[in-house]
Amino acid sequence: MSEKIDSKKYSSLLFQYDLYPERVIKKKNVLKVFTKNGTYALKKTKLTRSQAEWLFHVHERLAYIGYKYYIPLYRTKYGDPFVFDQYNTYYLMPWVEDDRHYANREAMMISNLAALHNQTVKEQEYSEEIISNSYQQLTKRWEGRQLEMERYIESVEKRVYLSPFEQSFVTNFHRLMHMTDKARNHLYQWQQKVKEKKRYRSVLCHGRVSPGHFIIHQGKGFFINFDHAVLDTPVRDLAYFLRSSMRAANWNERKAKDWFTQYQERFPLYEEEKSLLASYLTYPEIVFNSVDLYRSNRQNWPQIKHVNYLVKRIEQIEKVHKVNEIILARDEEVNEED
Amino acid sequence: MKLLEKIEAAYGFKHCHWIEEPHIFQTSSGKKRVMYWDDRELMQWHIEWRDHIGSRYHVFIDRMIKTEINERYFSWNQKWITVHDEIEEPLVFSVAVEQWGEMIAAVLQAGEYVPCNTNLVQKKELDYTSYVKKLGQIKKEKREKAKLLVFLIPDVKKRYVKSQELFSKVRSPLPIIDNISSPELGKEVYSNLYLKGTNGYPISGILPIKAFLLTCWKTYGPKIVEKLLEEIEKHCSFKEQYGKMLLAEALLPLEWMECIETIEKAENDETIQRSLIALEEKWERSREFSAFILKWLQPVDEKVAL
C-alpha cells in the first residue's frame, strides 16, 4: 500500500541533500522520493541523537570492513548523516527496487546474515562473572514473567465465564509453563558449556532480521534498517529470524533445516550457542506478549483479533521443538564427530 | 584549471557557470556562492561555529557544502575557498519570528560552545574617555558645529558607567559569535529561515544581537521584539543568561562614539549635519530601547508593583 504525500512537506528537508522532489509517496515507514536526479528512500524514525550516532557508526563500520550486503546512507550536502526535527530523525538512502517474486529470499538473507556475523565476530575475553550475571539476569527476568502469567491465570480461573481469549490461554497454559522450564534448562546448558569452554563471542547483530528488512535487487540481497543493530551474541539475530519465519504460512521443517545449514556453513555456531538459541526459541515470550496486548488493549482490537493473535503465536511456538531438534541434532552429530 | 572547473570536480556539481563572477554561480543543484578566505583559522572557526548551529529542519545557516571527499574547503591561489548555497528570496520578518528566536538561541549556544582563538576576536576600544579626548582633538570649527556631542557628555558618562557596572556583573567567558546584526541576513528557503553568515572576524559578547534587536525594534516596533525575546527564551534561558549583558550593550553610548568618528573624518558641513541628525534619532531610540529592555528584565511581580 502506498499513499501520495504533499512533496512540499519534505522540500526543506530534501534541500539539505540538494534534492528537489517531484513526487513523494509513503510506503510503510519509508517515503519514496522521486526527483530529476533519481529516486530515493527517506526513512522517518524516532531515533534519538545518540541512537542515530550509533547507527551511523554501524554504517561506517560496515563500509570499513567491506560488508557488501546493506544499503548505505547518503549524507546531506553539509556532511550530516541525519536530519533532525523536533520529533523525528530522518535519513536518506538510494531507492532500491525489491524483486518481490524472488523465490529464495530467506536463503539469501540467512547467508548474508552469516556473512555479517562472520565479518564482525569478536571473541570476548572470558569472564565467569559476566556469564553468571547474564545467566542470572535472564533467568530472573523469565521467572518474573512466568510469575506474572501464573497470577494472571489464577485470576482468570476464579471466574465462572471465561472469554474466548482467556479460554485459549488457560487451555495452553500448562504446555507454556513446560516450555519455560525447557527454555531454562537449555539456558543452564549454555551456561555450563560456556564455563567449561571458557569462551564467548559477539557479533554485530542487525537486530530485526526479517524479510521486510531485506531487499533483493538484480539477484543480490541487501539488508536495510540497522536502527536496532547491537553488539551481541549471533544467537540474537538467528532466534529473531527463525521465530519470525515460523509465522509464515508456508514454513516447514525442511526450509528451517536448509536455512540453518546455510548459516552454519558460513558461520558455524559453537555448541553452547546452539543451547542458547534453543533456549531463546523455546521461551514462549511471544505468547506472553499477546497476553499483555490483550490485557492492555492499547490497539483497541476486538476480542476476536486477540484470540486469533494468540492462536497464531501458539501455533508458531509449537513449531519450536521441531526447529530445536534440527539445531540440537546437528549438535549431537558434531559431538559424535568429535 | 579554472576555479569553476575545480569546483565542479571537487563537489560533483554539473553545468556550472558564473552568474556574478567571482562570487555566484549556477549549478544543476541551484545557485551557489563562493567565499574567499585569507585567514584559514578564521575560516575554520566559521566552519565549526556554523556546524554547531547545524541544520535544524526549519532554520538553516549557510554552512559550508562538503566536497565529494567530505572536505569543507580547498585552497586556491593562496586563498581558501568555501562553497555555500546562494539564497536570494527575502524572508518576511513578521512571519518568521519563531524561526528567528530559534536561530538566535542557536547562535548564542554555538558561541558558548565553539572555542575561538582570542587573536581572532574583534576588539574595539569603547572607552568613553578616549572619545572625549578625541572630541577635544577635533578641529575647533568642526567642534563648534557639533556642540550636541559636548552637551551629551554628562549623559554619555552616566550611560557608560552604568553599562560598565553591568558588564562587571556578567559571567565570563562571553559567547563568541558572528556579526549577525540584521534581519536582512535572513533569507527564505521553503518557508524556512536561511541565515547568511559573514566572513568577518567574530565578536565577543552579544553586541550583534543587541544591534539585531534594535533594528527590529526600529523597523517593526516593540511588540514584535517582545515576541522575539519570548521565542529566544523558549530555546535558551536568554533573560537569565544574557539579560544584563543585553542591557549593558544597550546602554553603551555607541551612537555618540560613532558620531565623533564620522565628524572626525567629515570633509564638509553636510556630512556633519547628517551625522548629527542621525545621532539625535539614534540617541532617542537607544534611550527607549534601553527602557524597554529594563522593563522586560524586571520580574512580573515588580512590574505589577510599578
UniProtKB/TrEMBL annotation, chain A:
It comes from the Bacteria. Residues 89-261 form the Aminoglycoside phosphotransferase domain. The keyword Lipoprotein does not apply. InterPro entries: Aminoglycoside_PTrfase, CotS-like, Kinase-like_dom_sf, Spore_coat_YsxE. It holds the Pfam family APH. Coiled coil: none annotated. Keywords: Capsid protein, Virion. One of its GO terms (cellular component) is endospore-forming forespore. The keyword rRNA processing does not apply. PANTHER family: COTS-RELATED PROTEIN, SPORE COAT PROTEIN I. NCBIfam families: spore_ysxE (TIGR02904). This is Spore coat protein YsxE. It comes from Exobacillus caeni. The gene is ysxE.
UniProtKB/TrEMBL annotation, chain B:
It comes from the Bacteria. This is DUF5071 domain-containing protein. It comes from Exobacillus caeni.
